[in-house]
């Protein structure tokens, strides 16, 4: 990537905003590993300590995450997402599930009205991938496949703010869901198929009701103080 015309004496806040723009502009996509510290020093023209401070600021803000032995990764693309994520991480399992139900049910209803043909095709594809994850995937693979389908439902709303909020919560939702994907049988397979069918058929009430039927049992099984 071409380097900016950058004054070496600039404050770390300017470097922080430079790095943040790499995320918000899509140069560092969500989930990607960012360049190494040495590469960032060379690219930005800033000192090593300034680069470290900028990265630390974005880690603290929830935009980046350091992983020991692997590097630093983009885990959020906006301050809204990272703020929501930090708040959700501090709440109970039951509260997280209730919030997910509210968002997912509303998203299913809106998606059934606004979905495009491309959305419908993607939902069917992800439904099949979710089924496959239960035949040989481990718990995290199952959760990732399930999340991909639910994210696609939210994406089919074409509501940018709703998508931002949901992305900020997704990591918390996935950790909570790890409690519910053990065993060889996917007890919710038919309900997920019914959900996709309702959205494809443009039936908002059935879509919302099916989403509620999917999530309500998990809420009922969680104690109010569950973490």
UniProtKB/TrEMBL annotation:
SMART domains: FCD, HTH_GNTR. The lineage of its organism: Bacteria, Bacillati, Actinomycetota, Actinomycetes, Micromonosporales. GO terms for molecular function: DNA binding; DNA-binding transcription factor activity. It holds the Pfam family GntR. Keywords: DNA-binding, Transcription, Transcription regulation. This is GntR family transcriptional regulator. It comes from Actinoplanes friuliensis DSM 7358. The keyword Ribosomal protein does not apply. InterPro entries: GntR_C (IPR011711), TF_FadR/GntR_C (IPR008920), Tscrpt_reg_HTH_GntR (IPR000524), WH-like_DNA-bd_sf (IPR036388), WH_DNA-bd_sf (IPR036390). Gene3D superfamilies: GntR ligand-binding domain-like (1.20.120.530), Winged helix-like DNA-binding domain superfamily/Winged helix DNA-binding domain (1.10.10.10). Residues 9-77 form the HTH gntR-type domain.
């Amino acid at each position: 990537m071409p380097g900016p015309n950058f004054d070496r004496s600039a404050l770390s806040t300017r470097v922080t905003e430079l790095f943040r723009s790499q995320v918000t502009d899509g140069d560092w996509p969500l989930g990607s590993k960012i360049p190494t510290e040495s590469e960032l020093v060379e690219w930005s023209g800033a000192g090593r300590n300034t680069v470290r401070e900028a990265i630390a600021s974005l880690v603290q803000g929830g935009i980046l995450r350091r992983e020991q032995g692997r590097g630093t990764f983009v885990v959020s693309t906006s301050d809204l997402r990272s703020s929501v994520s930090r708040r959700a991480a501090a709440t109970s399992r039951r509260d997280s599930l209730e919030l997910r139900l509210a968002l997912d049910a509303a998203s299913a209803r809106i998606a059934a009205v606004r979905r495009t043909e491309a959305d419908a095709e993607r939902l069917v594809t992800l439904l099949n991938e979710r089924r496959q994850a239960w035949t040989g995937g481990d718990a995290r693979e199952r959760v990732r496949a399930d999340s991909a389908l639910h994210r696609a439902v939210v994406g089919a709303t074409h509501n940018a703010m709703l998508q931002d909020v949901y992305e900020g919560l997704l990591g918390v939702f996935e950790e909570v869901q790890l409690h519910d994907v053990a065993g060889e049988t996917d007890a919710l397979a038919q309900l997920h198929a019914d959900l996709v069918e309702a959205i494809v058929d443009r039936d908002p009430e059935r879509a919302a009701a099916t989403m509620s039927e999917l999530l309500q049992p998990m809420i009922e099984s969680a104690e109010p103080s569950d973490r």
